[in-house]
């Protein structure tokens, strides 16, 4: 009887729990070498507690066996038993041949604790002892990559290109592509992405996004359509794909892809807004207004949707509908502050000046540093005869926009007339 072979047969047949039970029941009846293999197998299958028990028994028998220590420490890390892992690895002395591996495992432990600087120190210490050990470069690169230090990661990944394929869960060229993309070096990133066989949705999204940044919309469209073939529920890609179609001038495809996205995520307000934006470009005014109203119905405080619909009314001097929109939304206790500004505009256009004044005064509390607001409110106050306050607002505006000669000359004349 071969317990390992029998367990593998059970596992392959889908009887995972039976396979694990069979291994544990027979663990003491097999050789210690086979016990090590069983523990490794359980670890690979994700049964960490069972693997831990077997490795701990082996460690009690062979306390100086570093391979057992390393395997056990790896399990302890996965089980968040960091203190136990540290105790194991720190027992390995600097003059031990396995000290380099110990330093690398210590780096893993400290990284798992969020002590990235200490982890880096351990890796650099290992690098000093073995400067040509590419596994150390990999460790430094991975640590920097996950810590957002993409240039540092890039420097070390570039040393590893000759070892592509040697790391079971990491593709070096993909890491290089991601580093270059994160650094805004889109051409380099695209080159590496094009060398990869991209099968995962996230990979295809990043590839498409890189191409999009380079205005290679044909590549982006192909990548993102391939993504949706794999995962139609990857809803974040729909607006990007629509934008790529739009940039290529294929407006019907842009609109169609957004509507497909809406079927997958009917509460996605950004999709409603983007649909409306394209419908406006196609002179589908009523459809655009309808989609924006649906967006606002889903979230009455969504500032972008409110501004988009308000802008439609504003561009067509439809101030009555603009007033209805603003007043309806301001019935909510926690309405967005932009509505105070919009209300000021509406009431001013409808010559309800006292209401406009009150709305602008309230909006000033929020937008006293917004150049566009300062200019608009300043000109309104001139019409109201509040010259001193208007002059101050326009001065504040010109500090941010000193190139506005028309306002500068107007202010000069205004001050000369006081």
Automatic annotation (TrEMBL):
InterPro entries: CellSynth/LPSAsmb/PSIAsmb, TPR-like_helical_dom_sf, TPR_rpt. TPR repeats lie at residues 201-234, 269-302. Gene3D superfamilies: Tetratricopeptide repeat domain (1.25.40.10). Keywords: Repeat, TPR repeat. Transmembrane segments: none annotated. It holds the Pfam family TPR_16. This is Tetratricopeptide repeat protein.
């Amino acid at each position: 009887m071969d317990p390992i072979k029998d367990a593998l047969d059970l596992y392959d047949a889908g009887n995972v729990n039976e396979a694990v039970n069979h291994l544990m029941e027979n663990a003491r009846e097999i050789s210690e070498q086979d016990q090590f293999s069983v523990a490794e197998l359980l670890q690979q299958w994700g049964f960490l507690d069972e693997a831990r028990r077997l490795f701990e028994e082996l460690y009690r028998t062979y306390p100086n066996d570093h391979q057992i220590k390393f395997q056990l420490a790896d399990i302890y890390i996965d089980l968040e038993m960091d203190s136990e892992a540290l105790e194991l690895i720190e027992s390995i002395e600097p003059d031990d041949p396995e000290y380099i591996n110990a330093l690398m495992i210590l780096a893993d432990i400290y990284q798992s604790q969020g002590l990235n600087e200490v982890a880096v120190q351990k890796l650099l210490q290992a690098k000093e002892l073995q400067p040509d050990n590419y596994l150390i470069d990999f460790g430094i690169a991975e640590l920097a990559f996950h810590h957002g230090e993409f240039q540092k990661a890039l420097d070390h990944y570039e040393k590893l290109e000759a070892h592509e394929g040697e790391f079971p869960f990491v593709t070096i060229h993909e890491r290089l592509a991601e580093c270059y993309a994160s650094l805004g070096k889109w051409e380099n990133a695209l080159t590496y992405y094009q060398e990869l066989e991209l099968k995962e949705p996230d990979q295809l999204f990043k590839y498409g996004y890189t191409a999009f940044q380079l205005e290679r919309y044909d590549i982006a469209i192909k990548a993102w359509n391939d993504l949706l073939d794999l995962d139609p529920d990857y809803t974040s890609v729909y607006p990007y794909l629509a934008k790529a179609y739009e940039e290529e001038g294929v407006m019907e495809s842009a609109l169609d892809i957004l509507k497909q996205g809406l079927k997958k995520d009917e509460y996605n307000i950004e999709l409603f807004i983007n649909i409306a934006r394209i419908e406006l470009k196609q002179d589908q005014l009523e459809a655009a207004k309808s989609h924006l109203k649906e967006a606002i119905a889903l979230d009455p405080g969504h500032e972008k949707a409110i501004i988009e619909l308000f802008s439609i009314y504003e561009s067509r001097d439809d101030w009555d509908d603009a007033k209805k929109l603003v007043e309806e939304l301001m019935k909510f206790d926690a309405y967005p502050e932009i509505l105070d500004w919009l209300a000021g505009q509406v009431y001013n256009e409808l010559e309800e000046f006292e209401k406009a004044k009150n709305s602008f005064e309230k909006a000033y509390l929020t937008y006293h540093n917004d150049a566009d607001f300062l200019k608009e409110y300043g000109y309104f106050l001139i019409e109201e005869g509040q010259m001193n306050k208007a002059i101050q607002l326009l001065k504040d505006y010109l500090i941010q926009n000193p190139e506005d000669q028309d306002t500068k000359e107007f202010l000069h004349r205004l001050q000369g007339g006081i």
